[in-house]
Each structure stands twice: as C-alpha cells, then as structure tokens.
Design brief:
Order of helices and strands: HHHHHHH
Number of domains: 2
Oligomer: single chain
Strand content: under 5%
CATH class of the largest domain: Mainly Alpha
Helix content: 55-70%
CATH superfamily of the largest domain: AhpD-like
Structural class: mainly alpha
Largest sheet: none
Distance between the termini: 26 Å
CATH architecture of the largest domain: Up-down Bundle
C-alpha cells in the first residue's frame, strides 16, 4: 500500500478514467504511480506526456542495452515497483528476463555483452551517491554508442532515477506485474 492512496476511478474525472482504462488495457492493471499522481492533475498530465515522449524518443540504442541500464537503476534505487514493471516490459518485448537475476555479476558474467556491461556500469555510476561518472567512462560510452546514443542512455538512466526515487518515497511497491521480478537489492545477501 502506498503512503498516498490511489485516486479511485470515481474521483479521477472523465479524462482520468479514460487514461485509467487505456492503461488497464495496455498493462493488464492500472499502474499505481498513475493513480497516485492523479492527486495533482497537472503533474499527472506532465508525467503521462513525458512517459509517452520518452517511449517514442528512446530508439537509438538496442532495446536490451537501454532496458538493462534502466532495470539496474531501479534495483540500485530500490524501487520494487520499477523492477516489477520493468521486468514485465522486458518480457513483453521478448528480452531475456532470466538473466536479470544475475545482474550483480554483470562485470564477469557471459550472460552480458561488453556493450551491456558498459551501460550497466554507467547506470551504477550515475545512480551512486555521490555520482562516480568519469571522463574516461563517458568517452568509452561515446565510442561504443555514439554521441546521440550516449545522450539517450544518460537521459533514460536519469529518468529512471527520478521515477524510482519518487515511487520509493511515496511507498509505491511492486504490483505483481511480473512474478520474475524477485531480485536481490544492492548489498542484500541470498540466504
């Protein structure tokens, strides 16, 4: 249960109910962040337009590279909702979600390509407090993905940091979009 309750359909207004219906049709369930954001109608619309824009704009990088970096960011921030929803989106996109359980071993695991390793390490560096991004790291990413690809990767990691931190702060947790989302959070040990 989130710290701020979701705005129910009856209180969401005509346009809010329409968005709720479309979201349920697309995702199978109403994403909790949408329903919580509906408390502030301008933020709700700004978030919706932004999400649609990011979805349409982020197309230069291979989807697997981009989605792994976003997923890693969600795990480092500790946003169980983002991990749950992101796992579902990766699965629906035909990406290999089984390897997500091994993301902590990305630096040495044969499950990850060199390009994916670079993107995941960059997500770690951008999400660290304080950030640990280096000039050398950015130069290597630019060589691998080009300038536009580097900008896309940077922006998507930053957006996921924003999403994850907002959801975490509001207590928005996983909704069961994807049962495969059980992952270890940074620093957590497996028993």
């Amino acid at each position: 249960m989130s710290r701020i309750p979701a705005v129910p359909d009856a209180d969401a207004g005509v346009l809010g109910r329409l968005v709720y219906r479309l979201a349920r049709r697309r995702f199978g369930s109403l994403p909790q962040p949408f329903a919580v954001a509906r408390h502030h109608r301008r933020i709700f619309w700004a978030s919706l337009v932004s999400e649609l824009g990011w979805d349409r704009a982020a197309t230069l990088l291979p989807a697997g590279v981009r989605e792994l970096a976003v997923y890693r960011t969600a795990t480092v921030v500790g946003c169980s909702w983002c991990v749950d929803f992101g796992t579902m989106l990766q699965r629906l996109s035909g990406l290999d979600v089984e390897r997500l359980a091994h993301i902590d071993e990305h630096a040495t695991s044969p499950l990850y390509t060199p390009a994916e390793r670079l993107a995941i390490a960059y997500a770690d560096a951008m999400t660290a407090q304080p950030m640990t991004v280096t000039d050398e790291q950015v130069a290597e990413l630019e060589r691998e993905f080009g300038r536009a690809g580097l900008v896309e990767l940077t922006q998507m990691i930053a957006v996921e940091n924003m999403r994850g931190r907002a959801n975490h702060a509001l207590g928005i947790t996983d909704q069961g979009f994807d049962a495969a989302c059980a992952v270890r959070w940074s620093g957590e040990t497996v028993s």
